[in-house]
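Final report, closing paragraph on structural work. Over the funding period we assembled a curated collection of sequence-structure pairs, and we close with a single example.
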Amino acid sequence: MIDIIVTIIVILAMLWGAVRLGKTFHGIRTLSLSRRKFVVLRNMKGQRGAVQADYGVSVIVTGMPTSGRLERLMGLDFDNYEIVVVSDLQTEQHAQEIIRRYSMTRVNVPAAAEFRCDAIRTLLRSRQRRYRKLVIADCAAPPAAALNCAISVSSFGRIMVIDRRTCLNRGTLMRMDAEFESCSDGMICAVSAPVIDMNTFGCDTAVEIVAGEYSRHISMIDRDYAISTGGFSEDNEYMARMLADLRDIPGLKLSVIRTPLATCSGANRTFRVGGTRITVYLLLCVTAVATLLSILARRWDLIATLLLTLWMLYFVMVAIGILSLSAIQRETGPYPIVKTLLEPFVYPFYPQKGSLMEKNFSKS
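Its predicted structure, as stored:
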């Protein structure tokens, strides 16, 4: 009986290792192809045909970000975009400071043909030309209704929703816009990309992104598609999940970019174990039990086989960690070579806290 159990464990471990390594190499190839595709599309930027009147991106920010994050959002490498901050200014401690800093003045709320904007108390735009892309909507409404109001006052044909703790890479809009433009027949309704938590970046995050199993993401959605599906509401299966995971929505024509294009810091985080680690933990537990039974039965040959299996599982995870970190650091900025080689060795045991600095990512 013990012989059968050990044989099953060894076969499962070998299958798991082969699948995970295959998935890792596939993810690295996908990242490489995506990078080359973007370079080609960027070089063809000057060959764009007739530009639509609403061409551009409206970045909707829920909650009032700090002035530092606003400066970063207004310094993205993209021409046609705006920042629409939707928040209840009466509850924001630094709202007045932001209004004074950017010389915001009250403007008329446009007549909304798509959604009602009764919840907007005040709509503010800057008097200074360099801050014209900043729009602040003082809105006291539930989250879904506030987002619909933001869509109504937005000016461009594509929208992206982020929270106030999220910072975008300088090339985020350019990269996601290029993905939209790559489909000339307009079949893409949305583009999704991973978000890195700067406080916990390490092997765990890199492995998830390369494998396509990341938990945080940002999405750029066609504005007309958002309106046609009813906007944001708790009952809307499509738009209610925009802030969750668009990949799970059946029938949505979605393009996924595995390249990390945003960072998040200061958010409330919960302990999360990725799918890669859950599977290997289960295998390790079963292997440990089988090893104990073999010791009790004095089957030294089986004990040696199980120990070799444990070492194989460990080194497969180390290899996955090294490959994933090496692939992701090309997109996120410099990562110490020593940490790239050493972190994977402790990755199988606990979430490794990384040292990738936010400033490095913002310059990538």
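The mean pLDDT is 76. Residues 2-43 form the longest helix (42 residues). We thank the funder for supporting this effort.
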